[in-house]
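Q: Give me a protein?
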Amino acid sequence: MSPITFAQQRYIDSLEAKLKQQELSDYEKTVIRCKLTRALFETNPDKAVQLTNDAADAPGADAKAWLYATRIHLLVQRKDKPGAYAAMDSAMRYVNSAKDPVAKGMVWFRSGWLDLIDNENDEAVAKFLKALDNFKGRQGLPMPHSPVTISQVSIVMVQILQGRENMPAAVIRLHCKVENLTC
């Protein structure tokens, strides 16, 4: 077994062990399940998708938002865009009632990512900015349990803007938004 495969399996084993802990809330288990889904996707895509199949039965808007956002990514990777759009519609149904900013951020991030795949760059940027706002939290600081870092969102957005005539102004606005500056 290669060191990378070994490390990935250790991560999967760790997440599976965590899921068995009694003291975790249903929502915490949902977040771990979503992380497990991403970890399993390369080696066992069927199991990964299966872990999100019961998204409609998840406990509360936050859990539903997480599961449907995770499902968007899985279905696109499986080349099931109609399924991904259905998952996005479901995720958007819960984004406004979700309380956890990271759950909201995941919905906006995956929705923007889906727009990016379809070359809807302006829509993607707007959604990435909403994701960024949620990942930064209420005090403008990164959320400690966010699976997507602020710099990852920024990098994706700068890549979108490459080649555009107004790139310098757009990059400046993006930098100001990330750094919470007035420009």
